[in-house]
Every structure is written in C-alpha cells, then in structure tokens.
Amino acid sequence: MVSGFLLSVLVLPVVLGTPGQYPLQRVPSKYFDVQAHRGGRGNTVESILPAFAWALIDGATTLELDNAITEDGEVVVWHDENIVATKCQDTGPAFANDTQFPYVGKYIANLTLAQLQTLDCGSKRQIDFPLQSTYPGVRISTLKELFSFAECADPDFRILWNIESKVNAEHTNQTRSPEDFVTRQHHIFINSPYRHSITYQSFDWRTLVVMKALDRSIPTSALVDLETAVMPDNETSPWLAGLRLDAFPGDMSAQIASAAHAINADILSPADVASVVVDPTLPEYVPFTTRSMVDYAHHLGMLVKPWTVNRMSIVEHLLDWNVDGIITDYPNMVRRLVQQRSRPVAPKYPKKRVLECLNRHLQKATSPSPQ
C-alpha cells in the first residue's frame, strides 16, 4: 500500500530542462513493444517455460523476466527472492538428510540449483489471476535453459528480452550483490545468440551503473515506483545508486526522468499507478506515469515503457501519450488494443513449432523424483 506521505510528493506539472548528451536520441522500433510480464502471468503460471511459450504464440514483442542467483551461483528465472507457498510446493529433498528441506520459505540465494529444481512451481494458480493455465510439475528454469528453448522456438532469433536483476537494495543479505548479478548475467548474455536483443532492467540502479560500466552496448532500463523513489523522513533512497531526486530541478516527474538520465539509462520504466485506487475513472486514482513524465523522458532521449499495465483504460492513456512500450500480464489483450489503434505489432510465432519446442524442453523442466 502506498502511504499518504508518498502520494503527497507526486506533483504532475513539469518544467523542461536541457537534454544531456547520453543516452543517444531515441529511435522508434519497428513494432510497438508489448512486453509479456513474467511471461504473461495473467494467462499462464508465471516465469516458467510454458508462460514464455504462450507469450510468443500470443504475439508479445518482448519477453520480460527476472533473474535470481542460487547459492552455487546459477542464474535462474524467477521473480521472488524467496520461495513462497502460494507459488511453489516441495516434492522432496534433493538428497537424503538434507537439513535445508523443506525448501518452501527459503531464500533462493541460500538454495543450490539442485535443491531449487526439486520444487513444483507450475501447479498453483494465483488467486489474483484466475485465468492462469497451470503446468503441474514444471520447475524453475535457468536462464540458459530458457535461451535454449527460445532458440528452438525462434530459429531466426527475433525475440527481444527485458531481463531484470532481482537485487534487494534495502535488505542486502537476502540476495546476491549487484556486482555478482552483473558478472554472472553478462557472461550468459554475451555467450547467447540474443546478446544484441537484451535490455537490462532493475529497481536497484546500482546494478544498471555496474552493467553500463562493464558493457555500454547493453541498453539499460531504470525501473521506479514511489516506494523506491521516495523514502520517509527525507532519507536517501538505497535504490537510486546514491542519487537524490531533490538534487534535480523541476517536480517529481522531471526529477525521476533526470535521475534515470544521470545514470545513462536508455529507458525509463515507471509504475503505472501511484494510488491504492487503480482505475482512472475513480476520483481517488493517482497515476505515477504521467504525460509530463513521458514527454520529459523523451526530451532527454530516453524511451518510456511503464509497468505493469493491466487495465485497458490506462493502456489507452499511455498510448495517447506516445509511450514506447507497455509491460503487461496480458500481452494478448494489450496487443489487440495496440492493433486497434493502428500501431504496428510484432508477428505471432507459429503455435505448432513453439509447442513442439516447449514439449521437447518440458522433460527437462519437470521436477525430478525426490531422492
């Protein structure tokens, strides 16, 4: 829930400043960027191979996903820092007398890949997403496994990726460090056929700074919402790489865009809503992404791709404001609306081929029998 203090700092008018020299002037992409959030968790249980398969079939432009790192240093595709009982269930220990078992409730940073991959993370439909298709027995995949599936489904390597480092800037003992994330993720990125199709995003802007210093060719996307942008008692946010918004001129919309520009982010990815009320037809609704924020970020040369937009009324506003992409749990629905607005959308991937590749890889994505 967003506090009243946070809502009080959101001021909508913006004063344009002088654009910097970096990032380069934004270049419109061929297709409007419909991003499948966690593979499109409105339609399929999140973050597992079937979710990404159906996102391709539904015509998503970009596959959006999160990375965590296991205790033994493996980069895996999962959103949460710990294994929650509402999404995964234990099937048995990875080996006899494992004192870590059961694994549900544990942090991924404290589990090995072998322990993590005993979990069934495909059986549980989320209460908030009643239309989800489930895939019982499917386990969490490594990033390498997801890329392997994608190469099968996408022999022309057309898939675009938006990959997040799941670093906790406030509770640093719960995840690996920004440097560890960047080093391990970058190694996989540059050794994949998708190295030129990856955007790197994070709420922890330290991670974006480290990635940009290591490899300037990888576009970075600055995720931000009220909870990470503004701290109580005027404290410096641990999420913004040491920057303070009040060091930049203008209102909050301008300050956020300017701060993202200051760390050389290529994309600003703000939350869609700043209030508990999430429908723009209601008087209590307060947007986080505003027209002035979009205009000013464009003025600075950045693209704007808000998250996680699931209401078509908000999608309509964002399209009116000329955002460059939308991250959504329902890529099929957003794609349909974008198409109705006569915006170009990415072609869908052949269903037969994608499902054949999925079935081929599901054998590897099914939890092994307990020892």
Automatic annotation (TrEMBL):
<dbReference type="InterPro" id="IPR017946">
    <property type="entry name" value="PLC-like_Pdiesterase_TIM-brl"/>
</dbReference>
<dbReference type="Pfam" id="PF03009">
    <property type="entry name" value="GDPD"/>
</dbReference>
<keyword id="KW-0732">Signal</keyword>
<feature type="domain" description="GP-PDE">
    <location>
        <begin position="32"/>
        <end position="338"/>
    </location>
</feature>
<feature type="signal peptide">
    <location>
        <begin position="1"/>
        <end position="17"/>
    </location>
</feature>
<protein>
    <submittedName>
        <fullName>PLC-like phosphodiesterase</fullName>
    </submittedName>
</protein>
<dbReference type="InterPro" id="IPR030395">
    <property type="entry name" value="GP_PDE_dom"/>
</dbReference>
